């Protein structure tokens, strides 16, 4: 038996309880978690913004050590450190054939499977976003684990599973920030902080962080922000004022709200680029008129998982970490236990702090 955070139903509070995990079957890996990040996507699963079968063990950003492997698994072995990949590509669908593995049509099929059972009543449990990282141990498909980078502590490597891949990819793959360009980052949570660091690594000349909380300025500047704007009705005007009245070259929205997306778009120069990373609800409608779309010539694009290929991007990120260019500790503002996840969700809703990290 292992302890896990179970979502019994959408809209219900998490329950910290014991679950029974089976031994790994063919093509499966059992992992003992070292750490798991509390991501806004987990919160979106609890409130129904994103949908997965329930009851489920949540958590999708994690790293740990391989305990055992099933038949046919050869790329990892017991004792290996691994990073969990919550969106493994099938390699066969249309998106994968185009090399767009982050859009794989079958990436989340594992979330519908039954992977474990509650110890108290034997009821079925689903693995959240494939990997069920909010547990002391988990059993996942073999393609959901990647070897952890050498020289990176597993508690830090957990952040590579979502926040860092997403933020780095938003800058380098989606927005394609060039050296000397100006960047605005909306939302200074875990992903936002990773995005700021990625913009710094890309050589952005000015990085403007935007958040509703004045208290996050120190976090943003530590990550590499050159300027900080407290979100208001005049945010776009303030950003233009910081960029010679032109607007930034690139805006990255990490919140997922209609008003923030619209403001990010308005904050860019004519011909500027806005990348939307935040996951919003279907009720969040963003509107534009036809004339402004023509006149400003701006680009607005979505970004899934940072448009990243984890197998290719993890080694790149590892080199940035080892060289001191990427500081994973700068993303984390709180270390918690499993029973601290509900409070971490509350802080997220209140706009407090960066990434909360569950340490096992």
The poorly predicted ranges are: none
| Strand residue percentage | 25-35%
Mean pLDDT: 96
Structural class: alpha/beta
Output the helix-strand order. Answer: EEEHEEEHEEEEHHEHEHEHEHEHEHEHE
Gyration radius, rounded: 20 Å
Helix content: 25-40%
From the N-terminal CA to the C-terminal CA, the straight-line distance is 15 Å
Number of strands: 18
**Shape verdict:** globular
Largest sheet: 7 strands, mixed
Task: Enumerate how many helices there are, as a single number.
Answer: 11
Describe what you observe in this structure:
The chain is 26% helix and 26% strand. With 360 residues, the chain is of the alpha/beta class. It is globular, with a radius of gyration of 20 Å.
Could you give a short description of this structure?
With 360 residues, this protein is α/β, with parallel strands linked by helices. 26% of the residues lie in helices and 26% in strands. Strands 3, 5, 6, 9, 10, 17 and 18 form a 7-stranded mixed sheet that branches. Strands 13-12-11-14-15-16 form a 6-stranded parallel sheet, sandwiched between helices.
């Amino acid at each position: 038996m292992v302890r896990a955070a179970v979502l019994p139903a959408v809209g219900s509070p998490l329950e910290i309880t014991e679950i029974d995990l089976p031994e790994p079957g063919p093509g499966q890996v059992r992992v003992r978690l070292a750490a798991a990040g509390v991501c806004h996507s987990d919160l979106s699963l609890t409130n129904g913004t994103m949908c997965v079968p329930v009851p489920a063990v949540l958590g999708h950003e994690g790293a740990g050590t391989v305990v055992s492997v099933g038949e046919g698994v050869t790329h990892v072995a017991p004792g290996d450190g691994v990073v969990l990949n919550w969106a493994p590509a099938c390699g066969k669908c249309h998106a994968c054939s185009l090399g767009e593995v982050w859009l794989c049509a079958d990436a989340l099929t594992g979330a519908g499977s039954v992977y474990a059972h509650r110890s108290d009543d034997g009821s079925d449990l689903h693995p959240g976003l494939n990997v069920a990282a909010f547990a002391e141990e988990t059993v996942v498909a073999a393609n959901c684990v990647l070897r952890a980078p050498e020289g990176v502590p597993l508690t830090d490597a957990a952040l590579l599973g979502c926040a860092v891949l997403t933020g780095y990819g938003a800058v380098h793959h989606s927005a394609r920030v060039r050296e000397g360009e100006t960047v605005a980052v909306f939302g200074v949570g875990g992903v936002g902080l990773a995005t700021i660091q990625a913009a710094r690594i890309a050589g952005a000349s000015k990085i403007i962080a935007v958040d509703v909380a004045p208290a996050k300025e120190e976090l943003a500047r530590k990550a590499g922000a050159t300027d900080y704007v407290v979100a208001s009705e005049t945010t776009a005007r303030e950003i233009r004022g910081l960029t010679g009245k032109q607007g930034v070259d690139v805006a990255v929205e990490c919140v997922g709200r209609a008003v923030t997306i619209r403001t990010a778009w308005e904050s860019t120069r004519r011909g500027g680029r806005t990348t939307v990373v935040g996951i919003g609800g279907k009720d969040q409608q963003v509107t534009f008129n036809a004339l402004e779309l023509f006149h400003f010539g701006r680009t607005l694009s979505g970004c899934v998982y940072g448009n990243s290929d984890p197998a290719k991007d993890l080694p790149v990120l590892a080199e940035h970490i080892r060289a001191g260019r990427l500081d994973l500790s700068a993303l984390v503002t709180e270390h918690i236990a499993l029973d601290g996840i509900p409070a971490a969700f509350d802080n997220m809703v209140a706009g407090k702090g960066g990434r909360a990290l569950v340490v096992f």
